Amino acid sequence: MAKLFHRGLTFRFVFWILVGVASVFSAVLGYNGYYSRKLIIKEIERDAFDRAVSAANHLDMFLKSVEKISENVSYYLETGSYDAEGISKLIRTVVEKNDEIYGAAVAFEPYAFLPDERFFAPYFCKKDGKVQFREIPYDYFESDWYRIPKSTNAPAWIEPYFGQAGAIIMSTYSVPLYRRENRERRFVGEVVVDISLSRLQKKIASIKMGDSGYGILISRKGTFVSHPDERFIMKETLFSMAQAAKNPSLVEIGRKMLEGSPGSAQFYDDFTGKKSEIVYVPLSTSGWILGVVFPKKELMADLERLHRRMIAIALAGFMMVMGIIIWIAHSVTRPLRILTQASQDIASGNLDVAFPSISAKDEVGKLASSFAYMQASLKHHIRELTETTAAKERIESEIKIARDIQMGILPKVFPPFPGRSEFDLFATLVPARDVGGDLYDFFFVDDNHLCITIGDVSGKGIPASLFMVITSTLIKIRASGEMHPELVLNRVNQDLAKDNPSLMFVTLFLAILDVRTGELQYCNGGHNPPLLIRSDGHMFPLDAPPAVALGVVEDHAYQSKKIFLKDGDALLLYTDGVTEAMNVHHELFSEKRLKKAVHAMRGAPVKTIVEGLLHRIDTFSKGAPQTDDIAIMLLRYFSKTPRE
Amino acid sequence: MEIEYVGKEKEAVVAAVKGRVDAVTAPEFEKQFSRWIKEGNTCFLVGFEQLDYISSAGLRSILVIAKKLKGQSGRIVLYGLKDVVREVFKISGFDTIIPICGSFEEALEQFQASPPGA
């Protein structure tokens, strides 16, 4: 119990503090994680964007220079006059002098340069390090590179394509060419410049972001111009890839990218197999889109490592706090445990257990001093109680001795006179818990005269028992050799009343039976009249003149009466403990029940009748305490000389 | 047991006793009358109409009270006894030394016919 209590207290204390500490730690860690993540993401995105813009500027610069050359050629041709040789020379020079230019041509409208030539498009391109002349061998008017600038009347970058039999990826920049006629500019053809995109691809390939981040370049139609996976290049578009990946969100992202403004998007990258982000910027020259793709998680690895370390540190801190708190809780509850142990010892009866001195001035210290005080008072009270109990036990033992003495002077051997066949006699006294003052006695006053008497002293306890002993002794003395009951009562009454300050009294019935004749002289001093039970079953209380109990009126003159007992007649003497025995409903056993019981048993031996009566009284008053002594005496007379 | 002070009738205290007067309640019974006697009352008319039981200890208490009053030329008269109580008085012979009447009127009449000290 005490251990459980202690464990409970410590446990609760530790538990709630740790709950609090854990909440604070998690809140701090959580906020830190959330906020630093946000910062880092912002930083990463900015970095990616910077890289994209820088790369885009680089590409734009390159493309711009190509544009410039083409436009210069176009301007030169428009303002000057030229022949076929001059054009060839010009183009050759352009190709030879510019590394970035793979090939160049001037393509004229049908019959625009020579009236008899439908096609005129001298073309110089590099091959094996040398510049060679070639005719464009096909009807080029419907090719994209010719048609688009002509229809929009503006220079244009053409979608990249495989050139040189699939060896390199190329793109073409076409600038419309005009001729001034009659102050009007007439479209006569186009200056066309081919470039290899390998330089752009190299630049894109140099973009790195984390371990697996990479750059891409996409044409205006969404075709991959540059991608770390070469199989994508010129073969896949954003949309074909979205379809292959069954990822419709990629379509949306692709559409956004092709709208022509910078932006960013999140997506699942099948190439790296990671959740990634793309940052994209359109090239201002060709309108192609440069993108930087990077798996965010990878870039956050450092952050996550930091975060894990912080969690580890927090956990270690938590364990340390836990240890400290457990130690504190333990030391706070230690005096309580000592107190519990001490009070347990006290509870188990060891009042002399040395109380631990707890010097703390706190609540526990106060509790300890209260306990010490309680121990002292307990000791004091228990000593008092022990003394009181001892005194009570002494008194009770004295009362018991008094009762034993009282019972000892009553004759208890039955049959009392084994040689006598003139009568049967049985008597008993059941004492109440408190000592009562009932008495009975029987003795021969001479050879033929049997004296029987029964009495009840007023009140209870030691005084009653003392008075009863005195009365019994007086009767024995005064009845010796006396044949007249009234004289015995007169004398005993005088003895008792003479000096009786406590005004105690005794009701007494006394009779003297001549066993030869059955003559019964009797005298009643305020006692319940005995019941005479005739052998024929007729029964009645013995009538007697009214007389006061003994010990009250000193000069009272008692009077005797006489009756003859016949063979088989019986006399039942009893005290009011019989008729006033009470049951739990406060009903008295009463004379009526007594008569009924006696009548039912009238033929039985005297002992059987008396015991039967006791049994009935006991059954009747079951559950209710016996408050008064019960005394019963039954005498049955047997005549030697049957009378008429 | 309860003792109720009913009032005074011609110098006499009229009281009513209820319940049981036995070994347990007798000392209280005796104490109440001793208090009244100490206050100077010497005559008592005591109604036993609601007295259910009286034991020998109760009889002794009445005896003690009667003896005290005798010394001061006083008197106690009981009236209205139930049959069971009356029987106790009769058997013990106490009805020969303590005046007992059937009703209050009868008790008052007897009290007036032979005033105390006469």
Task: Give your account of this protein's structure.
The complex is a heterodimer of chains A (644) and B (118). By secondary structure, chain A is of the alpha+beta class. Helices cover 45% and strands 23% of the residues of chain A. Chain B has one domain (2-113): Transcription Regulator spoIIAA (2-Layer Sandwich), CATH 3.30.750.24. Chain B has four helices and five strands. In chain B, strands 1-2-3-4-5 form a five-stranded mixed beta sheet. In chain B, strand 2 (12-21), helix 1 and strand 3 form a beta-alpha-beta unit. The radius of gyration of chain B is 13 Å and the shape is globular. Classes of the chains: A alpha+beta (644), B alpha/beta (118). The A-B interface holds A 434, 456-460, 503-505, 507, 525-529, 546-549, 552-553, 576, 580, 588, 627-628 and B 22-23, 26, 53, 55-57, 59-60, 63-64, 67, 84, 90-97.
The name of the CATH architecture of the domain at 410-637 in chain A is 4-Layer Sandwich
CATH architecture of chain B: 2-Layer Sandwich
Overall residue-averaged pLDDT value of chain B:
89
Shape verdict of chain B: globular
Largest sheet of chain B: 5 strands, mixed
Helix-strand makeup class of chain B: alpha/beta
CATH topology category name of chain B: Transcription Regulator spoIIAA
The ordered string of helix (H) and strand (E) elements of chain B is EEHEHEHEH
By CATH's scheme, which homologous superfamily of the domain at 410-637 in chain A applies? PPM-type phosphatase domain
| First and last CA, distance of chain B | 33 Å
The tally of strands of chain A reads: 22
Strand content of chain B: 25-35%
Mean pLDDT of chain A: 87
